[in-house]
Specification:
The protein is mainly β. The chain has 5 helices and 27 strands. It has a 6-stranded mixed barrel with strand order 4-5-12-6-11-10. It has a 5-stranded mixed beta sheet with strand order 21-20-16-17-25. Strand 3 and strand 4 (64-70) form a beta hairpin.
């Protein structure tokens, strides 16, 4: 049977405006003692490389996050791991509009190493405050799950303080949220966001917190991650961990000068079908987005490839005027899902293949109820590789050599 989806799918922390259409799946606040949530932060270091585990899932939480510490003595925060933005942003004690479920809030007076960031600092784009401090304002798209076209905004002051991630410590600047729009549903549970884009994608300038660790010669300018669809993942700092993959890396280049981590996309094939017109665009890799996002023309191309399997496709959901591609969701058994074809993204230098088990997303509150994890962003919209694709790979981000690595994930170790 089919049901019209009345639910929302979380579409990531992308710090630039875009009116995405969103797939309607359910997201709910998960109690802190729920097994989906923290199974304990661990940081394991080897050969100058550190693994730190993440919590989260593709659905119902829809984001992946880890623990950072800021200040002296350290104050602890749970922040989204986001390769679609640059800034480290956390709430201040007494933040206006911040949700009462945040697990941490920064107090400048409680840290002996805290200081407001000065205005007119080279490399920063501050809004100068009355006390000559550095104010910021950041607006995020698709942050409100009940109204996905409605942006969310955080404002506050930029501070600098000691920062710890994965056992490595340096000093960094970060945005301190003093006010946020009440519709920022992504921050209903976690505290903030930690962007990994190195530079040029900030609301106040400078470089990312990870880049501060690189500049301090604590880690190489490489990080990697694997994402477990149902519970957590691993963030690797300073290199890669061979135990988290089961095959060789393929590499695609990072486009210099692009926003975020972009790489050329040459085509998308369904069931090995290469007869359709090539799809050529640049695609962003964003761990803060949990679906595959495609502009309208590539989306329609992919839809046509799926529907070329009609009318003989043995499972409902592809054929007819109403389908997965028009927002319908369906009840499927495991054997039904196994009938769906593979989808392959042909990047420049790498081919990424996902199965129906990965691009069909289960709503956790309704057993065996699935929606399509591929979304149309409209004409002129962004193309984004989100978590439904990343879950199949151990993905490395090599900033020094400007390349992305894709190795089949060791799912057993990635948790």
């Amino acid at each position: 049977p089919k049901m019209k989806a009345q639910l929302l799918l979380l579409l990531g922390l992308i710090a630039f405006a875009s009116a995405f259409q969103s797939l309607r799946l359910n997201r709910q606040i998960i109690p802190k003692d729920h097994p989906f949530n923290f199974h304990g932060i661990r940081a394991e270091a080897f050969d100058g490389v550190s693994n730190q585990n993440m919590s989260g899932n593709i659905i119902p939480v829809g984001i992946y996050w880890t623990e950072v510490q800021i200040g002296t003595p350290p104050q602890t925060f749970q922040v989204a791991v986001d390769t679609g933005s640059q800034d480290l942003i956390v709430p201040e004690v007494g933040c206006g509009g911040c949700h009462d479920q945040v697990t941490g809030a920064y107090s400048p007076s409680a840290s002996s190493t805290s200081s407001p960031f000065p205005c007119h600092e080279p490399g920063y784009t501050c809004q100068c405050s009355k006390n000559n401090g550095c104010d910021f304002s950041a607006t995020y798209a698709t942050c409100n799950l009940t109204a996905p076209q409605q942006p969310c905004t955080v404002t506050g002051e930029v501070y600098q303080d000691n920062f710890i991630l994965g056992g490595f410590q340096s000093k960094t600047s970060f945005g301190l949220i003093q006010n946020q729009t009440a519709n920022f549903q992504q921050f209903f549970y976690i505290d903030g966001v930690m962007g990994f884009v190195p530079s040029d994608d900030s609301s106040f300038g400078g470089v990312s917190a990870f880049q501060r660790l690189v500049e301090a010669d604590l880690v190489e300018d490489v990080f990697a991650m694997c994402l477990n669809a149902k519970n957590g993942g691993v963030l690797t700092l300073g290199g890669t961990d061979p135990s988290l993959s089961v095959g060789d890396f393929q590499y695609s280049r990072i486009l210099a000068g692009g926003r975020g981590y972009q790489t050329p996309l040459n085509n998308i094939n369904v069931a090995g079908n290469s007869t359709h017109d090539a799809i050529k665009t640049n695609i962003i890799i964003d761990s803060g987005t949990n679906v595959l996002l495609l502009p309208h023309e590539p989306y329609v191309n992919v839809q046509a490839q799926f529907q070329s399997l009609c009318p003989n496709f043995p499972v409902t959901g592809l054929c007819g005027d109403s389908s997965l591609f028009t927002g319908e969701c369906y009840t499927y058994s495991d054997s039904d899902i196994a009938q769906f074809p593979e989808l392959t993204l042909e990047l420049e230098g790498a081919s990424l293949t996902i199965s129906g088990q990965q691009y069909l997303i289960s709503n956790s509150t309704v057993p065996n109820y699935y929606c399509l994890g591929i979304t149309d962003t409209g004409r002129g919209g962004y193309a984004i590789i989100g978590d439904v694709v990343m879950q199949a790979y151990y993905t490395s981000f090599d900033n020094h050599n400007l390349k992305l690595g894709w190795a089949p994930v060791n799912a057993t170790a990635c948790q």
